[in-house]
Amino acid sequence: MRRNRVFLGPLFVLSWVALGAIAPACAQIGKYVPIPAGSDADHALTEIDATTDPAQKLALIDKFAATIAQGDLAIVADERYVNYYIAAKNYDKAFEYGDKLFALDPDSLANGVNMVRAAQEKGDTDKLFSYGDKVAAILKRYKDAPAPEGKDQHDWDNTKKQTLENAHDSIVYVQQLVFNGAYQTQDVTKRAALLTRFAQMFPDSPYADQALGVAAASYRQAQNTPKMLEVANGLLAKDPSNLGMLILLSDYYSEKGEQLDKAESYAKKAVSVLETAKKPDGLTDEQWQQQSALQKGLALSALGQVNIQKKNNAQAVDNFKAAAPLLKPDANSYARNQYRLGFALLNLKRVPEAKAALTDAASVNSPYKSLAQDKLKTLSGATPAHAKS
Fold first, then answer.
1. Neighbours of 304 (CB within 10 A)
2. In angstroms, rounded to a whole number, what is the distance separating the alpha carbons of residues 80 and 240?
3. Taking a C-beta distance cutoff of 8 angstroms, is the pair 217, 12 a contact?
4. Domains plus CATH for the chain?
5. What is 126-181 written as a DSSP string?
6. Residue 71: pLDDT band by 50, 70, 90 thresholds?
7. Model pTM?
8. Residue 197: in which H helix or E strand, if any?
């Protein structure tokens, strides 16, 4: 059978958490700047926060920055500027003051969250990842920070644990924005690299494995086989029951005719995992049924391809036929399955059935349409004995 580049259906159905326009409030990681009650700073900030007119608010912030914001109060002024310019959707000015704030307080988690948010709203993926890196570094420094002088280590560990728990929503918010920015990148090579980078930035994120899974599929789409195998095998070593990687690797190896025993093992394991797999959070019952059916169909089709490679064509036919109705919603995967089925049937000299399968493949608008049509033309007057896998 002619070798073709694989056109996979969706191996991953991602559920996205709805993102509000405003980031969750951050727990205090970074400098704490006290504002004495009744002080000039207190009065000025109260007036700034109460003002709703944008021009007047900016004038008050400018006045506060010029007359009162000395020492650490400059941090407070820059925070007000950042919030003002994000609200005004003037993201370049928000970045300007955010960078000034980082110069004064490199460990400000709140500023990191704001900068990630601004980069996402502007649609600037490079800045999104640059500020995502800053947030990851802030969190690492905080987690690794030793107890302050005179503070009990046990008490300090409890303090850090509680602070990180309080910051959980903000941290997840950042991870969602950075992950989504990578996932929505159109260039598949850049998408794969960004998703891999995300998993390195936030290795403990609930999205880390999902990012690596999509990265592996993206590397395959970009035909970067070494990186695809590196990421996929690494993820499977970490999680031997990772459904997406079991299917991706069984599909790849079976299509290439390489490591057939491994391909067969992975495909069978994928079918087994699906039997007990639980519906992921965020998916409806209908979405989960569609996703699991498609994944089972891909695994069965990979098994059928292994069967052809091992010259067990009768078993291949059974697997392709079982896969067909499961793959029907995805045109490329369904057409490829029927195209393969046609060759398995030809090898069994069941020519009328083979023509029916190839006609089915040719009826679907996919990259296999012309391939199936060409094969049907060659079958005119040909004897079944000449059919090759």
1. 28
2. 48
3. yes
4. 28-146+156-182 (1.25.40.10), 185-239 (no CATH), 243-386 (1.25.40.10)
5. HHHHHHHHHHHHHHHHHHHPPPPTTS-HHHHHHHHHHHHHHTHHHHHHHHHHHHHH
6. very high
7. 0.80
8. helix 188-201
